[in-house]
Amino acid sequence: QGFCRYLEKNFSDLKKRGVVIGFDARAHFSSGGSSKRFARLAANTFISQGVPVYLFSDITPTPFVPYTVTHLKLCAGIMVTASHNPKEDNGYKVYWENGAQIISPHDKGISQAIEENQEPWPQAWDEERVDSSLLLHDPYPTISKEYFKDIQKQCFHRNINKETNLKFVHTSVHGVGHKFVQLAFKAFDLSPPFAVPEQKDPDPEFPTVKYPNPEEGKGVLTLSFALAEKDGAKIILANDPDADRLAVAEKQESGEWKVFSGNELGALLGWWIFTCWKNNNRDSCALKDVYMLSSTVSSKILRAIALKEGFHFEETLTGFKWMGNRARQLMDQGKAVLFAFEEAIGYMCCPAVLDKDGVSAAVITAEMASFLATRNLSLSQQLKAVYDEYGFHITKASYFICHDPKVIQQLFDNLRNFDGKNTYPKSCGRFKVSGIRDLTTGYDSSQPDQKAILPTSKSSQMITFTFANGGVATMRTSGTEPKIKYYSELCAPPGNSDVEQLKKELDELVNALEEHFFQPEKNNLQRKTE
C-alpha cells in the first residue's frame, strides 16, 4: 500500500503504464503464506487503485522482473523472494522504472509511505478480485519468449555449441531455475544440461541442503558431484533458488572438483565477454565508450584487464542496486556496459537485465567452456592464463555470525578508536596499514580532503584497510543476515607468478585480521562452518 501511494506521487501516468509483479516458489504451509499469495495480495492492492498489474502467472527467476520493467516500459517492478535465505524467510524486492533496484531517495520515500499506510484498505485481503479485473495482465508468454531472444545477442559461437562434446550438470537447488536454464541452453543451441533430479523441482522445504545457497560451497553441490560422476560431466552450474546467482565447479585432471569463487568466475566472464566484444568490434575508437563495473568488495581483476586493454572500469558500493543504477546512467550517455559482477556470485552479462542474472550467466559460461574445449583448455587453465596476462589476484572472503547488534557496533567503534579517540589501526599484526576508507563515516585517508568519493551510509558498517604489501581488506555488516563479513585480496603485477607465496602471504594477513580486528573469542563471534 505504501509503495502504491509513493508511485502515485511520482508518476502521473501510473494508471496507464502499471507495474510488474513476480514470485518464486517459497511457501510456509503452516501459515498458508507463500510468495504467490503475497504477489496476488500486492496485485490486489494496485488493482484496487486502478493501476494495471502485469502479474506473472507462474514462478519466474528474479531477473525476469527487471527485464519486464524495461521491456514493457513500466513504472516499477516487485519480486516476492527471499533468494537463498533460510526457508522460513520471505522478502519483497523493488525495481524502479529504470529497471534497476531502488536506491536513495526512493528507498526512504517508500519506507515513509509504508509508515503512513499501515492499516489494510477495504478488501485488501480479497485476492480473488484480481482474477476478474480488466487491469490484470499476464506477461509470462511474451516475456519468456522475448528474454531468450535478447540473451541470444550474447551468443557468439553457435556452431561450436552445436558440436561440443562437453557435458554439463545443472542444479536449481529446489528453486525456480530448472526450466529457464534448459530453455537458455536451447536458445544457444547447446545440448541440455543434466538436471539433478532430487533438486530440479521447486520445493520450499529445500530438503536436500542445510542452506539453499550455492555460495556456501561444496556442501550444496554434493548431489551435483554424484550426478556429474555418473554421467561423465566436467562442469556443474548451480543457481540459487531465485536463479539470480550462479556457482560453477569443474572437474580437475586430478579428479578433484574445483568450485570457482565469485571473483574467479568474474575474472573468467570479464575476460570472455571483452574478448567476444573485441572480436566483433574492430574499431579501436569504440573502446572509449566501453565499461565494466564491480562492487568495491569484489576482486580488482577487471581494473587490471581494463588498464591493459584500454576500456573503462568503475567500482560501486556493494550490491547490484548500485551497479544497475550506474549501468543505466552510463547507457543513457551512450556507453556500452559489457559486464558487471560482485563476489557474491552475481553476474550481469547482458544489458537487457540491469541486475544479476544466473540464467544468462549459466548459458554464457557454458558457451565459454565449450569454446575453450576446442582449444583443449579447461576453465581452470584459462583462469591461470588470465592471471598470467593481467596479474594474479588472490582473494579470500568469509564471515562471522553475530546476533548481538551491540557487539557489532562495539567492534567497529574499537576500530575507529584503536589507539585513542578517532584513530584507526596503524598495523594489523606484522602488516602495516597504508590507507583507510570508512564508508560509514565518509573518511578516506587517500583523498586530499580525506572525504570518501563513494556514497556513505551511517546505517551500515563498512571499513576498508589497504596494507603496505599491496593487500586490501574490507570488513562490513550484511544487510540481510546476522553476519560480519570480510573480503581480502592481494594483487600482483603481471609476471609475479609465485602463486603459493602470494597465497601464504594472504593467509597470514587474514589470520592477523581475524585475531586483531575481529577478536572472535573476546567478542563471542561464531565462525563460518562448511
TrEMBL record:
InterPro entries associated with the record: A-D-PHexomutase_a/b/a-I, A-D-PHexomutase_a/b/a-I/II/III, A-D-PHexomutase_a/b/a-II, A-D-PHexomutase_a/b/a-III, A-D-PHexomutase_C_sf, A-D-PHexomutase_CS, Alpha-D-phosphohexomutase_SF
Domain of life: Eukaryota
Pfam families in the cross-refs: PGM_PMM_I (PF02878), PGM_PMM_II (PF02879), PGM_PMM_III (PF02880)
TM stretches of this protein: none
GO cellular-component term (any): nucleus
Keywords: Isomerase, Magnesium, Metal-binding, Phosphoprotein
Statement: the UniProt record of this protein carries the keyword NAD: no
GO molecular function: magnesium ion binding; phosphopentomutase activity
Cofactor: Mg(2+)
Domain (Alpha-D-phosphohexomutase alpha/beta/alpha) ranges: 1-119, 145-251, 283-390
Record-level GO BP terms: carbohydrate metabolic process; purine ribonucleoside salvage
Family of the protein in this entry: Belongs to the phosphohexose mutase family.
Protein's UniProt name: PGM2 protein
Naturally occurring in which organism (per UniProt): Rostratula benghalensis
Encoding gene per record: Pgm2
